[in-house]
Amino acid sequence: VDLAQRFWGPLALSACAKTVTTATDANGWPGPWASLEAAQTALDSHDAAGALRSVGLVRRMARACARLGQPNLPTAEPVLRGSGIRAAVEWRLLGYVEDAARTASACILRSDEGDVPGTASDLCRLVSRQFRKVKAAVRQLNTGVVGSWTSALANAKHSGTWAAVLDQVTEAEALLPKTWGAGLDSEGA
Question: pTM for the whole thing?
Fold first, then answer.
């Protein structure tokens, strides 16, 4: 056992424990679970910078916990939950559509590969589902309606197609984050 593990190991055990969910542990050390809680609070408060900063801390603290001789503590779970918060920030607060989709997909892949509770990637799965529904509605508009909407106005033969597309678009519009606002020109949207 090297000197760093002997010295820092007990502190890492304390800071890395899942039961520590306050801003710092009993010794004043921030841990991944405390940073995860701060990230969720920032997301709930629509503070994109604060949430992303805390997610970065989650990743760094989880790596530190693993390196300091605490491999039995669950470090993959807070990292995946942090990825979900990052995807939600990119999707809901920043409008970085493609980045949110990539982050959510990577999180889901990692959760399917590892020994992590299924709930660790719930937020990633939610963001991915919302993104896919919106993308499908946009695709439907681009392919199915471009040529037929003028026909639908001219005769009733195509109005059923238009109504189906309109229902899909209305459902997708409800999924668009209200925090984007009317004037946001979202990348990838």
Answer: 0.72
